[in-house]
Amino acid sequence: MTAPAARESSSATVITSRGVGMAVAGLLVGGGGVGLASPVLVYIGVGMTSAVAVGCLWMLLSIHTFLLRFPFARRDVTPRPLTVGVPGKVVVSIESAHSHGREREMGIHPARRFTRTLVESLDIREQAAAELTGGAGTKATVSRSSQSLTLTYNLLPARRGRWPLGPALVHSSDPLGILQADTSVGGAELIPVWPATVDLSATAGALMGHADRIVLGARTPSPDDAALRDYREGDDLRRVHWKSTARRGTMVVRSDERAGRRPATVVMDLPRDSEAIEWTISASTSIALSVLDSGHPVRLLGGNINPEASHEDRGHSSALARASLLNDTVDLKVPISATAAERDLLRALREAALAAPSGEVIVGVFEPLSKDALDVLVPIGDSGRAWAIVRSGGDAARKQGVDDTLTALRRAGWKVTTAGIGSDLEQVWTTLLTVGGDME
Questions:
Q1: Which H helix or E strand runs over 172?
Q2: Are 416 and 433 contacting, i.e. CB atoms less than 8 angstroms apart?
Q3: Most C-beta atoms within 10 A of its C-beta, which of 109, 232, 341, 353?
Q4: Distance from C-alpha of 361 to C-alpha of 400, rounded to nearest angstrom
Q5: Which of 12, 56, 66, 59 is nearest to 182 (CA)?
Q6: Any bridge partners for residue 14, and if so which?
Q7: Are residues 292 and 427 in the same domain?
Q8: Is residue 207 located within the same domain as residue 303?
Q9: Nearest-angstrom CA–CA distance, 267 and 283
Q10: Is residue 32 part of a domain?
Q11: For the ranges 226-235, 408-417, 428-437, which has the lowest average pLDDT?
């Protein structure tokens, strides 16, 4: 929620075709009356041009009064950030000084408040990027009272990123329809949109468990193996080990079980196609979130993401960890060139290669890879903790590149599968973890 704030407003006033016709006709009729020495025509011409002048004065006073009487505006977007494919809601409220007890402070006498009739003569609409509405128009609901004007409408984000929303425009006109004005309300802002994700948490635990078994054998660590330490103020009482506490005579708690859980790195190879990059980001983020939900630290690598930004679900801050990871993806852009894309990928791969010897699980979502990229990835496969999805499809040259990448990675010990943009990600992920087969 955003607290009501005084707004910076501006107004664009235009004369309508009716107003132009009336002004021109008034001048012609008045001029003809002077030429013909006809007082009646002169009076008619003067009356028509005067109506235009009165309309201008009406609009100036109306806009000034509106800005004076309704100085507070706020926009609430829920949820925030938005997520691709998940409906959102926007409420724009324009509130009077009286509703905040500020009329006398702002020099407005209560006896001169706007009436409901005047408020109901105003229309309000909001400008929103097509990426926030799915390219479709929005159906807004407007509620009015003597103290406020409220616009409510729904969004359906269609693309990840930051997209402009606002300003809201209050439309008004004079009684004769000679002039119209659009007064901006609340200003514009950029609304972040998270990528669409698929819940893979049911199988992400299998990935991390397999990585543990490679090192530890068939035995899986039990929560009872967690080390004990003295109780510290602020520790969750649910972590108290009561048997040891009774035996020792002093309160002890289990150490954070997550501290010893194997971390994972998800590497994104960002393509230069706008549709493909969204698929890659969605797939990579889904994998990373599912690993996070299974209780393991995870980080995303690729593009301009900070390689040191690791995310971990610490129980009380799981929502914050998820939000932080998703926020890392909002500003990812299509690489400006093939050279830039290769440079970003090699930087991410080298960072992953540094972590692999320490037992970190590596998962990649790749395009067909160059020799330089494969040279970095091949040694990681020796750990037995490396998985990759290679995006398939395209012309014959690309298909050959996909085949070469699959062959090189499999020979190096990677578990690999393929997927197209239209593939079911959950099925692709299951295939990768079970048989490492191909899927178009």
A1: strand 161-173
A2: no
A3: 341
A4: 28
A5: 12
A6: 180
A7: yes
A8: yes
A9: 11
A10: no
A11: 226-235
Around 189, how many Cα atoms within 13 Å sit in the side-chain half-sphere? 16
In angstroms, rounded to a whole number, what is the distance separating the alpha carbons of residues 281 and 329? 7
Distance CA 322, CA 330 (A): 13
Give residue 205's pLDDT band: very low, low, confident or very high (50, 70, 90): low
Structure tokens at 198: 């698929």
CB proximity list for 311: less than 8 A, separation 6 or greater: 288, 292, 297, 298, 299, 321, 322, 324, 325
For residues 146 and 113, the answer to whether their CB atoms sit within 8 Å is yes
Q: Same domain for 152 and 292? A: no
Domain that holds residue 241: 228-258
- Residues 79-125: tens digit of each pLDDT: 999 999 999 999 998 877 665 555 555 554 444 444 454 555 667 88
Q: In CATH, what number is assigned to the domain containing residue 175?
A: 2.60.40.10
Q: What is the mean pLDDT of the chain?
A: 82
Task: Mark whether 182 and 87 lie in a shared domain.
Answer: yes
Q: State the pTM of this model.
A: 0.78
Measure the CA–CA gap between 224 and 322, rounded to whole angstroms: 27
Report residue 360 as tokens.
């970190």
Q: Are residues 344 and 236 in the same domain?
A: no
Alpha-carbon distances, residue 216 vs 204, 226, 353, 357, 387 (angstroms): 18, 16, 22, 15, 19
Percent of the chain at pLDDT > 70 equals: 79
> Is 439 inside any structural domain?
no
Do residues 164 and 214 share a domain? no
Pairing, β 72-78 against β 123-128: unpaired
For 158, other C-beta atoms within 10 Å of its C-beta total 19
Position 366 in a domain: yes
The rounded distance, in Å, linking the Cα atoms of 30 and 43 is: 7
**In Å, how far are 9, 170, 278, 312 from 63, measured between CA atoms?**
10, 10, 44, 52
> Does 407 reside within a domain?
yes
- Residue 114: which of 98, 93, 94, 91 has the closest Cα? 98
Rounded distance between C-alpha atoms, residue 127 and residue 75, angstroms: 12
> What angle (nearest 5°) sits at the alpha carbon of residue 125, between those of residues 120 and 126?
150
User: Does one domain contain both 134 and 209?
Assistant: no
197: phi then psi, degrees, rounded to nearest 5: -130, 160
In sequence order, the β-bridge partners of residue 92 are: 75, 151
Angle (CA) 282 285 287, round 5° = 110
Q: Do 188 and 268 lie in a common domain?
A: no
In the chain, how many domains are there?
3
What is the distance between the alpha carbons of residues 419 and 153, in angstroms, rounded to a whole number? 37
